[in-house]
Specification:
By secondary structure, the protein is α/β, with parallel strands linked by helices. It contains 13 helices and 16 strands.
């Protein structure tokens, strides 16, 4: 009798334990469900990030003259925050991107940067949209020892100190200038150029770089004129340039100036090749210039023409990015949206490679990134190269019928 009673109690205990185990597994999210096809799939909630968020700050221009650059950058950062958190966050923790508008103003960029560092306690910074606002951020980030990913092109961002805490995702001016000069000399077969450039940091940097590389391609700058960013009529400058009889006009700036130049050029009835900067690689230029945009050519990253990409890793990145961005915002991403994708993706990779959120660990990991397939190109950083991209990452694009076609 005792033996039989013991056997019954043991069986009962096993049954109870089985029920308790099933309840425990269900509470932990390890239950299984059966699909319509009859296969078992595991419901895994382990991707849900937990703990204190990893905070990254971003300063972009969503108002002011640089808004056509900053708006797609902001869109991408918001998209990527959601996407990264849906895939488990960073180091298992939620990612939080605090985005502030600098109003296209250097003083506002300073205020925003100080707030992100001192109040939001960010581990890294992204910004800004324009070269002047980026340069305003740079010494503050460097003094605080916070990594900064720049999305602007001015050469001085990574050519002049302080340099240890700033990296770049946008193609720097010398790459874009070289690509444009090569196109004028080799594809158009022209030699004499006139240059119209914005007096701001971006335009002045571009003009300086044209002087640096013109002789390499046998180009002669027969005349140059500058303009202020907010000028609404550039007829006077264009008239002066016309007197020098150039074979092509190079306009180096971001909207609205280049669009004003295109309209004034048409009003003057001056039909010559117009080669712009990579700062007009968005539909805002076409919108502002109207039919005067027809035939304008500019350098850009390959996101405008994914079919031009030969690297399979980058093609996969671009295809996924275009699909995700278009689904959320109803339009394809442009050259500036890709800066946002690369900035946050490179920071996340650095944090995960370092397995640490300390700024110096992130900086060391950024310097070790090699062969990273991004939306802007293939990034190769090092302690002495914080630019990452090469001339081959750029293509030439022409505006035709209010859209883009490959120029070469």
């Amino acid at each position: 009798m005792r033996k039989s009673r013991k056997a019954v109690l043991t069986a009962t205990s096993i049954a109870v334990l089985a029920v308790l185990l099933a309840v425990f597994l269900a509470a932990c999210g390890a239950t299984t469900t059966t699909s319509d096809a009859g296969s078992a799939t595991e419901t895994d909630q382990s991707l849900e990030p937990s703990g204190d968020p990893i905070v990254i700050g971003a300063v972009v221009s969503t108002t002011g003259p640089n808004a056509p650059l900053g708006e797609p950058e902001r869109n991408t950062l918001e998209l990527m925050e959601d996407k990264i958190n849906a895939e488990g966050g960073v180091l298992g923790r939620p990612l939080k991107i605090v985005i502030l508008d600098d109003q296209s103003n250097a003083k506002e960029a300073v205020t925003a940067t100080q707030r992100l560092i001192n109040q939001e306690k960010v581990v890294a910074l992204i910004g800004a949209s324009g070269s002047a606002t980026t340069l305003a951020m740079k010494p503050i980030a460097a003094q605080a020892g916070i990594p900064q990913i720049a999305m602007a092109a001015g050469n001085t961002i990574t050519d002049e100190p302080p340099l240890d805490w700033v990296w770049r995702v946008a193609p720097k001016d010398d790459l874009a200038v070289e690509r444009a000069c090569k196109y004028i000399a080799e594809d158009l077969g022209l030699k004499k150029i006139a240059v119209l450039y914005d007096e701001n940091a971006f335009g002045s940097s571009g003009m300086a770089q044209i002087d640096e590389v013109k002789d390499v391609y046998g180009l002669e700058v027969v005349a140059r004129e500058s303009y202020k960013t907010d000028e609404t009529d550039l007829t006077a400058q264009l008239t002066k340039l016309r007197g020098s009889n150039p074979e092509a006009l190079v306009v180096w700036g971001t909207n609205p100036g280049p669009a004003v130049a295109a309209k004034n050029l048409k009003q003057l009835g001056w039909p010559l090749p117009y080669v712009g900067s990579h700062g007009i690689a968005n539909f805002k230029f076409i919108e502002l210039a109207g039919d005067a945009a027809e035939g304008v050519v500019f350098p850009s990253t390959k996101i405008l023409f994914p079919q031009s990409i030969t690297d399979e890793g980058q093609k996969q990145v671009i295809d996924t990015f275009i699909s995700d961005y278009t689904e959320r915002f109803g339009e394809a991403p442009n050259h500036f949206a890709s800066h946002g994708w690369d900035a946050i993706s490179l920071l996340v990779k650095a944090i995960e490679d370092a397995q640490d959120t300390k700024p110096d660990a992130i900086a060391a990991a950024l310097n070790a990134i090699s062969g990273f397939a991004g939306a802007d190109g293939i990034f190769n950083y090092s302690p002495t190269n914080h630019d990452g991209l090469a001339v081959d990452d750029l293509i030439m694009v022409e505006i035709e019928d209010a859209s883009w076609v490959l120029a070469q």
